Amino acid sequence: MDRGAQPTAPDLAVMQSGGAGGETTVALLGSTGSIGSQAVDVVRAHPDQFRVVGLGAQRSIDRLAEQAFLLRPEAVAIGDDTLAGALAARVPAGTEVLAGVDGLRELASRAEVVLNAVVGFAGLPVTLAALHAGRRLALANKQSFIAGAPVVQAVRNASGGSIVPVDSEHCALHQCLRAGAFGEVGRLVLTASGGPFRGRTPAELHAVGVDEALAHPTWQMGPQNTVDSSTLMNKGLEVIEAHELFGIDYDAIEVVVHPQSVVHSMVEFCDGSTVAQLSMPDMRLPIGYALGYPERLPHPFGAIDWTALGRLDFEPPDRDAFRCLALAEAAGRAGGHAPAWLNAANEVAVDAFLDKRLPWRAIAEVVEATLAQCEAGSPVSVEEVVASDRRARSVAGAIVDDREWAA
Ligand code: MG
Predict the structure, then answer these.
(1) How far is the CA of 217 from the centre of ligand 1 (A)?
(2) For residue 347, is it within any domain?
(3) CA of 194 to the centre of ligand 1 (A)
(4) How many angstroms separate the alpha carbon of residue 286 from the centre of ligand 1?
(5) Is residue 352 part of a domain?
(6) How far is the CA of 203 from the centre of ligand 1 (A)?
(7) Per-residue pLDDT reduced to its tens digit, 57-78
(8) Which of 51, 251, 269, 374 is most solvent-facing, going by the fewest CB within 10 Å?
(9) Long-range pairs for 227-230: beta carbons < 8 A, 24 or more residues apart
């Protein structure tokens, strides 16, 4: 095992909260986005099991207020503090309104289980606050976990908090790892759908547009994650996430393209046995798994119809056509500031692509050129992670602005 990594045992051990017959208190942060909205469906389907005590969002006050009327939490939090007054006027009487990053943090410390579904690097304070408070973190924000890994791991190891991943591949690995001991793990096999551009050559990818990149074949997600799936950056970030979550060396983490998205990932054990987790591609399953762990929810979100399944295909990823995968794997191996720089450069490049200021093929170029300027060493505090992220964004932004990107 290497830096910052820990065996799976602490997070796979019997949970320290909820589950003992009573209801589990839950805070949903990033509740108005794609994962957050599906989490609302899950908790509403299990009213006896979960009590939502907090809901938080960055800016979507109308949606947040609607959810507050449905779930009646004790408190709501809005990341953009200028919207606190408007939110207060919309939520049920008596609901406490918290504001700013401190408000999101406060909410993350109040429940037994905290879903972090905030988008991107902005999720870091929520992850840290939940772990600091010793809570179970249902993690749907890989970006901040990866960027802040040196700091997050230290808090995770010291606080008694635990992480159950919501990312479908990592939820699958978490389930498969329950079949053996940490020392018996041979390798992790992460599956990738291949995204909308699977099978295309670099020449065929030269002029792909925003609409094409946003048309994911199997998963409904937000725009950042969908573009990340089209470049395979999502899978690259997931390789780093798997390493950090489960403490498995990069040499023992493999990526395989599986277009049907039914096998969500696999663990090969030392005797050659491979244990896989299969289910229909429906995020409500991993959300429910993370909220209910170690119990399984008695509601078959996405049961498989084996008569209709047909076939399951597997193929190696094309690292030449999808360069972001190898860039991410290299940044993960480099460790230190590199994962934060990788993530920041990618977020800047994807924003520019969605704004039509950058062609799709240049996302990898921006990430590569930004990483070439990455500083040595490793962040040791939240402030250093934030500063590292900010420097990387400024470097990436300058690369996007200063170069000529022919359409
Ligand atoms: Mg995933």
Answers:
(1) 14
(2) no
(3) 12
(4) 10
(5) no
(6) 27
(7) 999 999 999 999 999 999 999 9
(8) 251
(9) 227/350, 227/353, 227/354, 227/363, 228/324, 228/346, 228/350, 229/193, 229/195, 229/196, 230/195, 230/196, 230/197, 230/360
Q: What is the pLDDT of residues 2-24, one digit of tens each?
A: 333 444 444 544 334 444 457 99
Query: How far is ligand 1, taken at its centre, from the CA of residue 83, in Å?
Result: 31
Q: How far is the CA of 274 from the centre of ligand 1 (A)?
A: 20
At 90, which CATH number? 3.40.50.720
pLDDT at 217 over 80: no
pTM: 0.91
* Ligand 1 mean position, distance from CA 290 (Å): 14
Q: State in Å: Cα 264 to ligand 1 middle.
A: 9
C-alpha 177/C-alpha 79 separation (Å) is 36
Give the total number of structural domains in the chain.
1
Q: Which of 87-91, 116-120, 133-137, 292-296 has the lowest mean pLDDT?
A: 116-120
Residue 178 falls within a domain, yes or no? no
> Rounded to the nearest whole angstrom, what is the distance from the C-alpha of residue 384 to the centroid of ligand 1?
27
Residues 6+ apart with CB under 8 A from 266: 172, 176, 188, 189, 191, 274, 275, 276, 277
Q: Ligand 1: distance of its center to the CA of 96 in Å?
A: 34
Question: Who has greater pLDDT, 72 or 406?
Answer: 72
Among residues 92, 145, 82, the alpha carbon closest in space to that of 116 is found at: 145
Tens-place pLDDT, residues 128-181: 999 999 999 999 999 889 999 999 999 999 988 999 999 999 999 999 999 999
DSSP label of 23: P
Q: For residue 30, is it within any domain?
A: yes
**Would you place residue 299 in the very low, low, confident or very high pLDDT band (cuts 50, 70, 90)?**
confident
Distance 224 CA to ligand 1 centre (A): 12
Rounded to the nearest angstrom, the distance between the alpha carbon of 404 and the centre of ligand 1 is: 33
Q: Could you tell me if 349 and 217 are in contact, meaning their C-beta atoms sit under 8 angstroms apart?
A: no
Q: How far, in Å, from the CA of 241 to the mean position of ligand 1?
A: 10
Ligand 1 center from residue 235 Cα (angstroms): 7
For residue 76, give its domain range: 3-166
